[in-house]
Amino acid sequence: MSEPTTSAEVPALEPLVDRFGRVHRDLRISLTDRCSLRCTYCMPAEGVPWLKGNTMLSTDELVRIAGVAVARLGITEIRLTGGEPLLRPDVVDVVAKMAALPGPNGSPEVSVTTNALRLPALAAPLADAGLARVNISIDTLDRERFKELTRRDRLHDVLAGIAAADSVGFHPIKLNAVAMRDVNDDELVDLTRYAVDRGYEMRFIEQMPLDAGHVWSRVKMVTGPEILAALSEAFTLTPVPNRGSAPAERWYVDGGPATVGVIASVSAPFCGTCDRVRLTADGQLRSCLFARIESDLRTLLRDGADDDALEAAIRSCIAGKRAGHDIDDPTFLQPDRPMSAIGG
Ligand code: SAM
Ligand code: SF4
Q1: Full-prediction pTM beyond 0.85?
Q2: 112 bridge partner residues
Q3: Which of 31, 42, 214, when mutated, tests ligand 1's pocket best, judged by the most ligand atoms within 8 Å of its CB?
């Protein structure tokens, strides 16, 4: 069995490339499928059948897989997500270990996507542990609406979490909102102003068919062009060039430097430049949010696989990646796992 890889012994690196030539550099890791909110577009009020404790990867197992990805496969960015990643009791330790992983071009950039509820307590230790950035979800600035949308009266905690992230110097702070018809589509301008006034970047996401309740409907989805039209009534928007593999198309707001982004995954898919691969909290590797198959890295690991075998399994998963998500195809099937269990 080979020893875990260290940077000193890394040979010339073969990128993690699929059959369409897409090079994968971004690993999204779900730290837990559990959550402190119940956003209607994500989970039903009662939650979902949670993953069983013994199926969840330990921190050593998570770090082992991430280590192979960074040292041998050219992963340069790690995004921790969930569920709510900050609910994982040892999240600070996870960040410290991920941020110290040796890669051929240095350690990866580690960021987190969070609902911010635990940021007042954790922003400083996370920064000390090497967390580079935070993406925070906030769909409304209205307390009653927030309560309805997330089924929890916690808007004040989210706002405190954003302030905490700011005060420890995370930059840029990206704020994410899912745009929903007759729910928050009258707040797109206010949310953007809130972000711009504080130096954050607002990004609006098209709702995707990934909710546990299977209530998504294309008709209710607010599309990227609709979002843009609403913002254009209040702001002068100028396209930001060089999008690269980023999911968000961005615009300078009133000449910049502030920007606003739109993630139009459904109406304008960006699958052609996708560089993302996802690991679920129970150790299943997915080449796409919408993948119908998963590679079982947990069983491999627990059966004693060495780094060569882990590398081969990850490469094989990416080799099978489909060209696109095919939401528009009549044969499209929503994945069995909801977004909260895949890692958004
Ligand atoms: N709990 C954390 C949070 O809310 O930021 C991280 C996990 S959450 C699944 C990641 C992102 O996915 C959030 O920005 C959330 O708004 C988004 N999301 C969840 N369900 C979605 C859906 N059906 N369509 C589009 N975005 C969704
Ligand atoms: Fe929790 Fe995030 Fe899903 Fe909301 S979107 S229920 S915060 S996992």
Answers
A1: yes
A2: 80, 134
A3: 42
